[in-house]
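Request from the bench team (R.T.):
"We need a structural guess for the complex before ordering more magnesium ion. Sequence and SMILES attached. Just send the tokens back."

Command: build protein-magnesium ion structure.
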Amino acid sequence: MDPLVAAIDQGTSSTRFLVFNAKTAELISHHQVEIKQRFPKEGWVEEDPKEIMLSVYECIERTCEKLCQLNIDISNIKALGVTNQRETTLVWDKETGEPLYNAIVWLDLRTQPTVERLINKAPGRNKNHLKHKTGLPISTYFSAVKLRWLLDNVDEVQQAVLSRQALFGTVDSWIIWCLTGGRNGGVHCTDVSNASRTMLFNINTMAWDPELCRYFEVPMEILPKVRSSSEIYGWMKSNSLAGVPISGCLGDQSAALVGQMCFREGQAKNTYGTGCFLLRNTGTKPVMSEHGLLTTVAYKLGKNEPACYALEGSVAIAGAVVRWLKDNMGIVQSSSEIEKLAAAAGTSYGCYFVPAFSGLYAPYWEPSARGIICGLTQFTNRKHLAFAALEAVCFQTREILDAMNQDSGVPLTELQVDGGMTSNRLLMQLQADILCIPVVRPTMSETTALGVAMAAGAAEGVDVWHLRRNLAVGAERFEPQINSDGERASSASLVGRRPSRKP
Ligand SMILES: Nc1ncnc2c1ncn2[C@@H]1O[C@H](COP(=O)(O)OP(=O)(O)OP(=O)(O)O)[C@@H](O)[C@H]1O
Ligand SMILES: [Mg+2]
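Reply to R.T.: structure attached below.
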């Protein structure tokens, strides 16, 4: 039996556990559990850290059962990697092991007043005041402002900091700490890709920055140790996989970049999950954007390997608009139903949907923006609305692709894509039409998990995965079928669709 490598993929909407063959990258088995999102007040988004851990344990155990049913010995699992929703912020007590508040999810807007205060005190009210160190604008999105809110508003957090019992972390840190023993010797660490999303990490020196910590008034002793994305952090303490090394850690968007094998400068991918995130590898140098993109640490695949950077266009709401149409409006019963509904109309009939539920991220960085639906007539029905929602995802991607092309000067000639929404073929065709370049989707859609499995399997001391080897991965191409005047070259795939244009 070939060695196996496992991955925990803790996303905003769900947790997954997946097991890959380290020689062929074949997905052997997996299990997925949906995560409950809480909206206690308008603009607030929280998740329960204990529910997150329970979902991780459940996914591990259920996958191990499935492997046993396949007559696969779980002792073939040689390493485990963790990839996660980024920026989501937790504080817990290292003595009791208890979370001191719910996880504040990246989409959460409660820190808008904090952000305004911080921007007001920056020279020239410049939201890019810290960009030279962090690659990021001051925004509700990043962990430092969420942590600031916890320190200001939650007594338990303040007390735990005073008694030196508080630990801060993003979801990766929380999972690794729990899996390596929790209050009985858990390892408190994160990787460079996750650290680079906190706004406390200097992406030039690759360390926590005392000046940034002073700026946000964050005590440095509560921060996790920053490690590379591929090294042994610790070993699983309990459950079926006790003794297996945890040796890969990457933020989900970085993991997808690795999983799509975008190792060379200029290569890019777009992942369509809750939000959508276009990352382009810029090699070993951080490139600062002139067009509203972020500069982020993509990965550092080994203690002695150089860090690689990426330019990133982040869109807050992509799949979440479909979830909203399902959960809040009830116009579909499941996310996948939207495709049939939208295809039945084949057009939005002049209806436009700007799903700025959490403000607008790249390239605007405008936290006060809110969603609108416009262009409605007596004729508009839920099919048109469904179509407009899918188009909205494509238009947002077009905007960040344009920014990316302007920043790099070398236009992308095709777009590699992945994520839950890419199972929607109508969306993929619309995206190719709206970008006017081909969209390429791998047949194995779990690239986020694959990326961190690769990092875990390649770590020194594990050595079961060879990163630069060429894997024969299948892919499907969606060619643009629309010309620049908005006319369709063929009517084969979108029957009766009247091409809509960007307003
Ligand atoms: N066929 C579909 N058409 C449109 N949207 C879909 C479809 N299937 C799933 N989605 C949307 O995609 C999202 C789930 O994608 P995915 O599974 O990649 O997310 P995740 O990994 O759990 O979360 P994260 O965004 O943190 O990665 C949901 O918001 C869902 O509404
Ligand atoms: Mg995901």
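Two things stood out. The pocket of magnesium ion (ligand 2) is lined by residues 9, 11, 252, 273, 448 (CB under 6 Å). The two ends are 56 Å apart (CA to CA).
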